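Subject: sequence -> structure tokens, single chain

Hey, anyone have a minute? Need the predicted structure for the following. Not urgent.
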Amino acid sequence: MFDARLRPLIDVPLNAIARTLSGTGITPNFITGVGFFLGLLAAGCLVLKLDYAALVFILGSRFMDGLDGAVARHAAPRSRHPNAKSQESDLGGYYDIVSDFLFYSGIILAFAIGRPEHALMAAFLIFCFVGTGSSFLAYAIIAAKQGRMDGDAQGKKSFFYLTGITEGSETILVLCLICIFPASFNMIAAIFGALCLMTTMGRVLQARRDFG
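Reply:
Had a minute. Here:
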């Protein structure tokens, strides 16, 4: 919901860093891997109930998630390195998507392992994540098959980007809230899970209108 509004603010620092990294040999896939590793560290911290350490690693992981795309899209005319070139690839986009969904579900799983009393609501939230993720990717597949073009409101993507109530920005916020207010996990999970279900339903209805 807020991704399109935040994108212009986020792109400025990301593009500045991308200009510095472009041509240095640091690849987008390497950055994706670093981001995923930071996500694993965040999960480990949650298992050990080191919530504020987990928060730092979550923010670092999501920063890398934004940076990999900026570096991939950085082309020679905007670079201080004459031999720099765009490194966008379908494989890179695939890695990015897979690591994102493993990260989001993994953080919730780790929280449940560290606090089994919240396991039921954690399972509910992961179920809701599956709904938003599957409705998102299924729409993208059909849209690509039909040759539909996406706008750049959320930034240039490796796939057709369908908006909803719960997007990346809202999900990151919820993960941060879980780290800051772990005792309120059940309430946070219930509210955000309901919003995820609303997003899923909205996307199903959108698909019915567009593909029916």
